């Protein structure tokens, strides 16, 4: 106990105390999140000290809003958030699963079992469950034309747990179409190529997919057109700002003309760059009434804007870095870093470019593009918390679809847990020797937590539901749970699917954290009282 | 127009910023008010440099700081992060448009607004009332009575930087970091901040906010960046600055790294002390890599500094100490807002306009490319007839500075504003120029080059300014021979403005500051078997990264002191 010697104030919790602290933290976190789970869960409205409202049903968002202090809870929360970062969903399930593992463990430990043995059981059960998952998953063949129906089912399953049905169904198509739009054969899907843009709109809750791009800024010159058809798009990263030369040089002048001349000379290099762009415009728009739009990542100063406006060019400055990539994917052409080698091939094309103004906020729509590989999901909502919630749901939906395409498999919702549990109890347990059997059993029971809580959130009797489900399973049927009636159903018929990778991740990370927490037999913390309630 | 975007990262930086914006708001208010002094009405400063004009969805014009502020979740106290300007009036409390299922509401205890914020709120409502032709007279007299109480309550109760802020912020300005899950005390090193920023959406969101403000600028002159470098926020700022350097290559960044006095180390805990020393070294090296000019600000104690002759500062109150730093930053920022005028404009109220780029060029771009500058202030600045020369009374706010060193190559840029010629007569621009020149001529150490900016307008003291002035300071910031009152400290009710002088100085006096950091990095991070190697690795710095940081620091030392090159080679 060297630390004790060094710092007599350090607090030490040992053995059963430490264990119970961990178990309680895990259970506490589970309690907070469990009412969120599933399509019948509650939505949480958080009102901050200054009256700020946040509305969420997403475990990930909720965890981030919470001021968690217990080190154990933080560990669990980090795992859950990491789960969201890698696979996009399942935060709540992870927390609940860890909590349940700890709960089951508590029961066994109270009966005198050693945590080490328990952990061994968990490990065996985990491996068996993962193997079983491989067998249980429903493979989906993606190929060149993915099965849109399956993707929609997955997206709908996720979205319906976050938004009410009509809204979720509307988003389902949008989300699936967005992912299919950016998908390129033989390449991983980059979801950043879907821009998510929002507008505050008085009464409207509406979301639409824009095949093209929506930028959150507009041109900064009064004479530039607000709407243009048949546009050449120049995507560039070229400074069109006058910069003073680095060496300190003053000018001397004796009359206004001279001064003008001096300023003009200093500006010349900028003007030359602008002129090159205008030359290109004149070349491509010479014998037609096409329009020309510049979207620049760097700045454009007022004199340059002026020249461009006179040449009939629409110019936007300081575009998002990511939009450079998106624009090229949406409109074609290429992003140029210098105006020296401009050719018509650099240009993209959009059928329609127009500006939309809401108060001080401006939006520029680049639409009717030829062959878009980038698109925008435009969310309208009356206030920030509604927008934020839809945004979260859209993100989850997008990742769900992406996962399905990459996994080439899905898992039947609520059926897997029951099936896996029966598999563990009936088959795996027999192959295990000694007391680790109990660990396997505890793990198996913990698996049932998700259907249990879903049933609970739907106001059903959990015991009845579980008995009915396991009974039905033992008859050899694949069963899910109808949350309206509590009857067993065939999830295949209902079309509700989960992501395979999300499930795997939960099964993988849950027991790892739980085992670590269980094997802690001493907690030492200097300088703070940890028994105080958090 | 040459716009500045201001960025404040970290708690203490926001304390400083809050005072800074209060000064600006006070200047704006005084310029419009009929009963204020002529020097405030024609201050000759272009406020558009710092502020932006906007419009709410209802079509009401707004004028808000061009600011991005980053702080902990919950650090805004009773103020909403969206501000109040852009809110639709009746926000229906329960409108869950997205979910038909059950709703549970978790309401945290609403934080009580302090007297000051309450009076602001009342005033605003009264203004709304009076514009509709209702009676507002009696509420006016009502607030008059409260002023002393307000000052008193601020003195005792300030907890959040928003508690004393009278500025309306744009909804894009205030950003709270959520999901850190660490207590403020644990958020104390570079590594933890860096980790918080890189994971998750924070980086993207903050960069978006900055882009929002930069996109509006026609010709941005620079970014004024204030960072609280006492803890994890320097990690955040470091990553943020790297992004800025990447994205806005032509926009120079003027960085103030501020340190609150109480963040001094707890010497009993050795591990913590090492972590702190390494943090200071790493953070300084990292931050300086991505800006054009860095100004370390923050004495270990203001109360015991020479400043305490005229100011009564309590070190443990960030509300007090940040006011001094904010005043200095305000003074330094004045030349950026002056109108550049031709030589014929003798009658103007200002002179010596420079923009951030010129300033950087002037201090760091010439022969000796030293980018670390010292900030000195005189608060209040003495009248020119006083026995002590202005140059002697200037004292550094940068810690670990050598005094009385001779540096033939020193470069300086000074701002003097609102100074008195003698007694209560304000000095004209040319008088200030002459006086400063005379002071330089008679000074012992003379810099190689100095630039002077002056303005007639003194530092206005807004109501929520802390009572930090000593009883030797008069109503307009003049020095008195005899103490004016019994009470030791005087605040905004007694002192209405103060003359100021502030100076940025590129000199080898900053060497000890740099050498300490370099030595600590070598001792704890680089030496064989160093105690901090493991710690640095946890922060995400491998051996090579640390060597690079050390290299950067030692380069800074060699720029100022070429002689150190030989000595450092030997070890």
How is this structure best described in words?
- The complex is a heterodimer of chains A (534) and B (571).
- Chain A has 534 residues and is of the alpha+beta class.
- Chain A contains 18 helices and 19 strands.
- Chain A has helices at residues 2-6, 15-34, 59-65, 71-87, 91-110, 115-136, 148-160, 165-182, 256-284, 302-310, 321-331, 384-407, 415-431, 436-447, 449-457, 462-474, 491-494, 500-518, and strands at residues 11-14, 43-47, 53-56, 138-139, 194-200, 206-210, 213-215, 227-236, 291-296, 313-316, 335-336, 348-358, 361-369, 375-381, 409-412, 480-481, 488-489, 497-499, 522-525.
- In chain A, 47% of the residues are buried.
- Chain B has 16 helices and 21 strands.
- Chain B has 571 residues and is α/β, with parallel strands linked by helices.
- The radius of gyration of chain B is 24 Å and the shape is globular.
- The longest helix of chain B has 22 residues, at 11-32.
- The termini of chain B are far apart.
- In chain B, strands 6-4-1-7-8-9 form a 6-stranded parallel sheet, sandwiched between helices. In chain B, strands 10-16-13-21-11-12 form a 6-stranded mixed sheet, sandwiched between helices.
- At the A-B interface, strand 2, helix 3, helix 4 and helix 12 of A face strand 5, helix 6 and helix 10 of B.
């Amino acid at each position: 106990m060297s630390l004790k010697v060094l710092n007599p104030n350090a607090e030490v919790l040992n053995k059963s105390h430490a264990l119970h602290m961990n178990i309680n933290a895990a259970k506490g976190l589970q309690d907070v999140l469990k009412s969120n789970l599933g399509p019948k869960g509650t939505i949480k409205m958080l009102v901050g000290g200054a009256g700020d409202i946040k509305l969420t049903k997403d475990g990930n968002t909720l965890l981030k809003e919470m001021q968690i202090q217990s080190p154990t809870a933080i560990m669990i929360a980090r795992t859950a958030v990491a789960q969201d970062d890698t696979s996009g969903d399942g935060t709540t399930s992870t927390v609940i699963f860890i909590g349940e593992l700890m709960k089951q463990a508590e029961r066994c430990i109270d009966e005198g079992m050693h945590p080490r043995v328990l952990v061994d059981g968990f490990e065996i059960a985990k491996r068996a469950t993962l193997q079983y998952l491989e067998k249980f998953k429903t493979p989906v063949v993606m190929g060149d034309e993915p099965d849109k129906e399956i993707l929609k089912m997955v997206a709908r399953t996720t979205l319906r747990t976050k938004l009410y049905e009509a809204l979720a169904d509307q988003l389902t198509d949008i989300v699936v179409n967005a992912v299919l739009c950016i998908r390129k054969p033989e390449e991983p899907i980059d979801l950043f190529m879907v821009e998510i843009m929002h507008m505050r709109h008085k009464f409207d809750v509406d979301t639409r997919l824009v095949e093209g791009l929506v930028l959150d800024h507009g041109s900064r010159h009064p004479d530039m057109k607000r709407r243009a058809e048949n546009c050449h798009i120049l995507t560039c990263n070229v400074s069109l700002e006058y910069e003073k030369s680095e060496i300190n040089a003053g000018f001397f002048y004796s009359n206004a003309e001279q001064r003008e001349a001096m300023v003009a000379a200093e500006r010349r290099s900028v003007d030359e760059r602008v002129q090159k762009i205008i030359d290109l415009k004149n070349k491509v728009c010479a014998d037609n009434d096409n329009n020309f739009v510049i979207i620049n990542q760097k700045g454009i100063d007022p004199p340059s804007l002026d020249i461009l406006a006179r040449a009939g060019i629409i110019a936007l400055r300081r575009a998002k870095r990511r939009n450079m990539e998106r624009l090229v994917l949406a409109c074609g052409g290429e992003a140029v870093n210098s105006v020296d080698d401009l050719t018509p091939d650099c240009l993209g094309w959009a059928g329609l470019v127009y500006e939309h103004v809401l108060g001080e906020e401006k939006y520029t729509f680049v639409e009717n593009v030829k062959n878009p590989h980038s698109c925008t999901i435009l969310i309208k909502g009356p206030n920030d918390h509604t927008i934020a919630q839809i945004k979260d749901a859209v993100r989850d939906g997008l990742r769900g679809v992406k996962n399905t395409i990459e996994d080439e498999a899905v898992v039947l919702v609520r059926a897997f847990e029951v099936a896996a549990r029966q598999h563990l109890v009936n088959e795996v347990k027999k192959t295990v020797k000694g007391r680790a059997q109990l660990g396997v059993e505890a793990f198996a029971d913990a698996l049932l937590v998700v259907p249990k809580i879903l049933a609970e959130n739907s106001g059903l009797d959990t015991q009845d539901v579980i008995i009915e489900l396991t009974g039905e399973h033992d008859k050899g049927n694949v069963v899910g749970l109808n949350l309206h009636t509590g009857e067993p159903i065939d999830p295949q018929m209902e079309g509700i699917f989960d992501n395979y990778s999300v499930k795997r991740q939960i099964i993988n990370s849950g027991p790892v954290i739980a085992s670590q927490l269980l094997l802690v037999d001493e907690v030492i913390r200097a300088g703070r009282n940890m028994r105080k309630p958090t | 127009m040459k716009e500045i975007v201001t960025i404040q990262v970290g708690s203490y930086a926001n304390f400083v910023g809050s005072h800074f914006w209060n000064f600006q708001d006070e200047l704006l208010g005084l310029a419009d008010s009929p009963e204020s002094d002529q020097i405030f009405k024609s201050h000759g400063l272009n406020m558009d440099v710092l502020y932006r004009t906007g419009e709410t969805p209802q079509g009401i014009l707004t004028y808000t700081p061009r600011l991005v502020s980053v702080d902990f979740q919950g650090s805004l106290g009773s103020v909403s992060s969206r501000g109040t300007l852009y809110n639709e009036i009746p926000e229906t409390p329960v409108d869950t448009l997205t979910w038909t299922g059950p709703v549970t509401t978790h309401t945290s205890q609403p934080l009580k607004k302090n007297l000051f914020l309450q009076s602001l709120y009342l005033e605003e409502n009264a203004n709304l009332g009076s514009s509709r032709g209702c009676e507002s007279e009696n509420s006016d007299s009502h607030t008059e009575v409260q002023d002393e109480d307000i000052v008193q309550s601020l003195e005792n109760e300030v907890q959040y930087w928003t508690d004393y802020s009278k500025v309306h912020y744009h909804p894009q300005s205030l950003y709270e970091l959520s999901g850190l899950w660490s207590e403020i005390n644990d958020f104390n090193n570079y590594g933890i901040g860096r980790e918080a920023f890189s994971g998750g959406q924070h980086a993207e969101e903050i960069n978006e906010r900055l882009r929002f403000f930069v996109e509006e600028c026609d010709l941005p002159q620079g970014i004024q960046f204030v960072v609280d470098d006492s803890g994890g926020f320097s990690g955040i700022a470091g990553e943020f600055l790297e992004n800025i350097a990447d994205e806005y290559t032509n926009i120079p960044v003027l960085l103030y790294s501020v340190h609150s006095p109480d963040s001094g180390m707890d010497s009993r805990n050795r591990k913590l002390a090492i972590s702190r020393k390494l943090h200071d070294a790493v953070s300084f090296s990292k931050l300086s890599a991505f800006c054009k000019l860095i100004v370390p600000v923050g004495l270990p104690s203001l109360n015991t500094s020479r400043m305490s002759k005229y100011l009564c500062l309590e070190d443990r109150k960030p509300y007090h100490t940040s006011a001094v730093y904010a005043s200095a930053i305000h003074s330094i920022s004045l030349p950026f807002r002056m109108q550049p005028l031709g030589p014929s404009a003798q009658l103007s109220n200002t002179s010596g306009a420079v923009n951030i780029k010129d300033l950087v060029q002037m201090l760091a771009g010439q022969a000796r490319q030293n980018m670390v500058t010292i900030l000195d202030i005189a608060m209040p600045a003495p009248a020119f007839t006083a026995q002590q020369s202005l140059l002697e009374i200037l004292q550094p706010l940068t810690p670990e500075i050598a005094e009385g060193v001779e540096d033939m190559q020193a470069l300086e840029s000074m701002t003097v504003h609102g100074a008195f010629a003698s007694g209560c007569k304000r000095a004209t621009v040319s008088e200030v120029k002459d006086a400063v020149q005379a002071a330089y001529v008679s000074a012992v150490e003379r810099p190689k080059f100095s630039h002077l900016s002056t303005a007639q307008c003194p530092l206005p003291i807004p109501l929520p300014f802390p009572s930090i002035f000593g009883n030797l300071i008069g109503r307009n910031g003049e020095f008195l021979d005899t103490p004016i009152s019994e009470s030791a400290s005087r605040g905004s009710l007694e002192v209405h403005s103060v003359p100021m002088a502030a100076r940025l100085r590129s000199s080898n006096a900053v060497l000890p500051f740099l050498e300490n950091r370099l030595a600590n990095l070598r001792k704890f991070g680089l030496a064989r078997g160093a105690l901090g190697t493991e710690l640095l690795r946890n922060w995400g710095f491998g051996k090579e990264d640390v060597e690079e940081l050390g290299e950067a620091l030692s380069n800074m030392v060699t720029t100022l002191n070429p002689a150190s090159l030989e000595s450092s080679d030997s070890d």
